[in-house]
Specification:
Helices cover about 40% and strands about 10% of the residues. The protein is an alpha+beta fold and about 300 residues long. It has two domains: about 140 residues, Up-down Bundle (Four Helix Bundle (Hemerythrin (Met), subunit A)), CATH 1.20.120; about 80 residues, no CATH class. The chain has a three-stranded antiparallel sheet with strand order 5-6-7, with no helix packed on it. A hairpin with a 2-residue loop joins strand 5 and strand 6. The chain starts with a helix and ends with a helix. About 20% of the residues are buried.
């Protein structure tokens, strides 16, 4: 365990977090933009207090809690209720984050080698806290796409790369390959990046199946829309038909009709739907209906993991 390397990684993760939220006002940070997501202020506080719990208290034991009790405990405060919590403002929260990080850094410099402490072996607890902050970066990005009011405009941006040749090379659109089945290894024994629900690595028997070589594209989904896929009962499960009937959806989320074509929005960028890109922002019901429309089905979790790690 290299304390200097860990300190640098902690700094990089925090810089990434703060860059994401830099353009936002206190009100935008405090707002619960969607009932499925937390106010971003809650995410920031949770990141900091999870770090405080594991890197200033649990790291030297005994482990009393896996989540810090109180305001930022996700079990005490489910997402649907977090918008009503008395969250501090961003300045007070930043001060708390800096204070916690200062204590973490001080303790990091004084820790002895693992010495039988499983939390310190291979820097396990530090990797866990890093992955936790990265996970919340993803959660914050999801919230920013769902943001109410003006779309999110980042401090820095990168152009989406142009699609290259499909992964399957000469495989035609919708082309499939057959997974032969057999015993496959699922999960991981990694303790540096994977969460505990991915461990341990274990063998499972998988029956043969067919799977598309390439992701479903916007162009594929445009055909589903053009052929009245959202209005055709036979493509939908009972639950899916109830959902689409009640929601009135007729396209993926963030798609809108502009004249004769479809446009889409990602954060503050709008433009015509690129038929070459993989389709995004569809629900389980929409994905299931499209698969049935295409004469196929969605893979199971085990099938997907087996196929994703398979090199025919």
């Amino acid at each position: 365990m290299d304390p200097q390397h860990i300190a640098e990684r902690l700094l990089e993760a925090r810089a990434r977090t703060l860059l994401l939220v830099a353009p936002l006002t206190d009100n935008e940070l405090r707002t619960q933009h969607d009932s499925l997501m937390s106010p971003i202020l809650w995410d920031l506080g949770h990141i900091a207090h999870f770090e405080e719990l594991w890197l200033t208290r649990n790291v030297v034991g005994p482990v009393e809690f896996v989540e810090m009790p109180g305001l930022y405990n996700p079990f005490e405060n489910p997402r649907s209720s977090r918008g009503a919590l008395p969250l501090p403002g961003i300045e007070g929260l930043r001060a708390a984050m800096d204070d916690i990080r200062g204590r973490v850094t001080e303790r990091l410099g004084s820790l002895q080698p693992a010495g039988g402490n499983p939390l310190l072996e291979g820097g396990f607890v530090y990797n866990m806290v890093l992955q936790h902050e990265y996970q919340h970066n993803e959660t914050i990005l999801q919230t920013l796409q769902l943001k109410q009011g003006l779309p999110y405009a980042p401090v820095r941006r990168f152009d989406v790369p142009e699609p290259t040749e499909q992964l399957g090379g000469s495989v035609p659109p919708g082309g499939m390959v057959r997974f032969p089945g057999g015993q496959v290894e699922i999960g991981t024994d990694d303790r540096s990046a994977a969460y505990d629900n991915e461990r341990p690595r274990h063998a499972v028997d998988v029956a043969p199946f067919w799977i598309d070589v390439n992701p479903v594209t916007n162009g594929d989904f445009l055909e589903f829309i053009a052929r009245q896929g959202y209005q055709t009962r036979e493509w939908w499960s009972e639950a899916g038909w109830t959902w689409v009937s009640q929601s009135g959806e007729r396209a993926p989320k963030y798609w809108s009709r502009q004249g004769e074509g479809w446009w889409t929005r990602t954060m503050d960028r709008e433009g015509p739907v690129d038929p070459r890109q993989p389709v995004c922002h569809v629900s389980w019901y929409e994905a299931e209906a499209y698969a049935r429309f295409a004469g196929k089905r969605l893979p199971t979790e085990i099938e997907w993991e087996a196929a994703a790690s398979w090199d025919p």
